[in-house]
Amino acid sequence: MNTAPAVQPAIGGQEGEDSLYPIAVLIDELRNEDVQLRLNSIRKLSTIALALGVERTRKELIQFLTDTIYDEDEVLLALAEQLGNFTPLVGGPEYVHCLLPPLENLANIEETVVRDKAVESLQKIAEKHSAAQLEEYFIPMVLRLASGDWFTSRTSSCGLFSVAYGRANPARKTELRGAFRSLCRDDTPMVRRAAASKLGEFAKVQESDYLKNDVVQIFEDLAKDEQDSVRLLSVEAGIVIVGLLRDDATKLAHVKPIVKELVQDKSWRVRYMAAVKIVEIQQAFGDKIPIEEMVGWYTGLLKDCEGEVRDAAAEKLQAFCAALPEEGRKRGITGEILPVIKPLTTDANQHVKIALAHVVMGLAPLLGNQSTVEHLLPIFLAMLRDDTPEVSNVIGADELQYSLLPAIIDLAQDGKWRVRLALVEYMPLLAEQLGQKFFDEKLLKLCMNWLTDHGMILFFLRFYFLVYAIREAATNILKQLAEKFGADWAVKSVLPRVIELAADSNYLHRMTCLFCFNTLAEALGKEHVLHEMFPTIKTLCNDSVPNVRFNVAKTLTRIGKVLDAQTVNTEIKPLVSKMGEDQEFDVRYFAEEAKEVGFVMRLCQILFASARVVRSSAGSRLGSPKGRQAISLTQAAVARIKELIKQKPGAKALKIGVQQRGCSGLTYTLEYADQKGRLDEEVEQDGVIIWIDSKAQLTLIGSEMDFERSKLAAEFIFHNPNIKSTCGCGESFSMDTPTLNITGEPSTIKEIKNEKFINPQS
């Protein structure tokens, strides 16, 4: 048995012995029973070698270390690392081959980390060998390891072929190719895994002919291996091979289906590896694959049934999109990728959402400002509302400030008014998610500037009478902000700028002031309306422009809903009477609509009563007296509504609306709904829910909804005491309701099946 070498003093006397004493201690510790002492000594192996000299290091120390493979794994790991740096300590490259025996032994060790470190050191010293030494010592060692009885040596050998092949002679190269091919077909999966993981490195040093034939065939075999652990390691090899074959269209066409099969492999672990490497796959193919096909591979991973695969794919979103060819990039992102990304914002796996939150902001520079607001902003807002803190905190105010705010500011001055309008409609959502402080600092000024946006004002005026839904959506923005941040905030931050518009020389700006009053009145309440708004309204009552004056009449009607009866009589009625004598017909016309204070109050009472019913009877059935409900349902209607809701997944209620249609002017509509409108009234009875549109509420008070089925038809019937008359078929009706500008008296009304909404027979 070999023993640790002894140190002989190189100089005489006590001084020489004293200087070598520490080295002697280190050498003794190499064979100490204490593992920690042996480990410390191994870590100072270079010091021992320097003390021994290069010749004794080669002949004694290396021989001793070669026989030390029985030691603890921690000691062997340190030894494997030290030997990789030992070339100068054994006499330089001329003697580097003497380091092969101990490293070869370490490459056979069962512990993986020790073997890997030994292979790493062997790769490092391989380049120190001359061509002759490589063929005489290094390549025979590689072949011995590759043909060893234990799988440990065969797995270690896989990492050495690439460093040995380049300088080998043709005969040795043939041997090395044959040995590697055998390893790829080894009976042991661990060996095939090691070969698959090193195939890419070996492919890089292969001659072109062997690459196109031998290597491609080996890759195909590994990509179809029965073990998914082998197939997943072949993904990286495929990336290297594709890159090497990019200029050979024939071979690339042969390899592409193999890579595609790996991306769509039956094993989720292989698909996971493909998702992790998808950007490298994309870059390897470059422009040799259509953008639509590559995007299809990627979106398939984003839609994978396994959360781990979706997670890995989502992490690569920004990098993948950035690597797409500039021509067609935006189309691929907005048309193919984002429709798949949107469902991931509500993914059941929170890791997917977290991964998405970290990268989705990176798409903004790729899409440009308009597409960012149009396509990304809804995704940002959805993630801001997420219940998972790790998601919502990532998409925070700071991130939005740097990624989104520049796009918002740029589009705020866009030449197309439709673009600006789309941006305006996002403001309440942004305000809700980002908070008052951020909104006041970054976005409030932008919103206030929109009040004098000429394009939007013309848009509002153009459609004011024709498109109620658009007008309502646009003018509700200020109200939503006031409801979110409170009346005091609106009075302090919004109202002063609005009131300034009343003195503007542009009459459109003065009308905008009135539009804002109409919207804000309900949110601000009686006191603020009376003390902040009303003085300005009185001033505009005498405006020189008739359009402004008749809009004052409309505004008086709107604020009358907020004020009490006494205030209406003392403040509003005198103004309305005065405007009723205006020289302009339009002003007199609209003043006439609001002239009777009794009508104003009656309208207020109806609306407030409706609101009180909703609040006081929330959660109760409609079995209460009819005076306290907008509509009651018969048992037949309840049963049919339950059937309809059951047939429509996602629907939560039926919504009743009213529209201009039919012989008599108006007809009710029924449609499925999954979300209650802000102004809708909710009626719940026997487990079914009805939502009544704000325009239909006044026509339905006190009505009963029934359902009848006959041989000819199945239909809902509204027994309505408010209507005056119906057409012959019972489809449409008329009423005497000033707000609807029609006349009526009690009767019944049938709402027959309407294929646009709900077919009761379906």
Automatic annotation (TrEMBL):
Residues 291-368 form the Phosphatase PP2A regulatory subunit A/Splicing factor 3B subunit 1-like HEAT repeat domain. The keyword Aminoacyl-tRNA synthetase does not apply. HEAT repeats lie at residues 22-60, 99-137, 176-214, 255-293, 337-375, 404-442, 494-532, 533-571. Residues 631-731 form the Core domain. Coiled coil: none annotated. GO terms for molecular function: iron-sulfur cluster binding; protein phosphatase regulator activity. One of its GO terms (biological process) is iron-sulfur cluster assembly. Keywords: Repeat. InterPro entries: ARM-like, ARM-type_fold, ATAP, ATAP_core_dom, FeS_cluster_insertion_CS, HEAT, HEAT_type_2, HesB-like_dom_sf. One of its GO terms (cellular component) is protein phosphatase type 2A complex. Belongs to the phosphatase 2A regulatory subunit A family. Belongs to the HesB/IscA family. This is Iron-sulfur cluster assembly 1 homolog, mitochondrial.
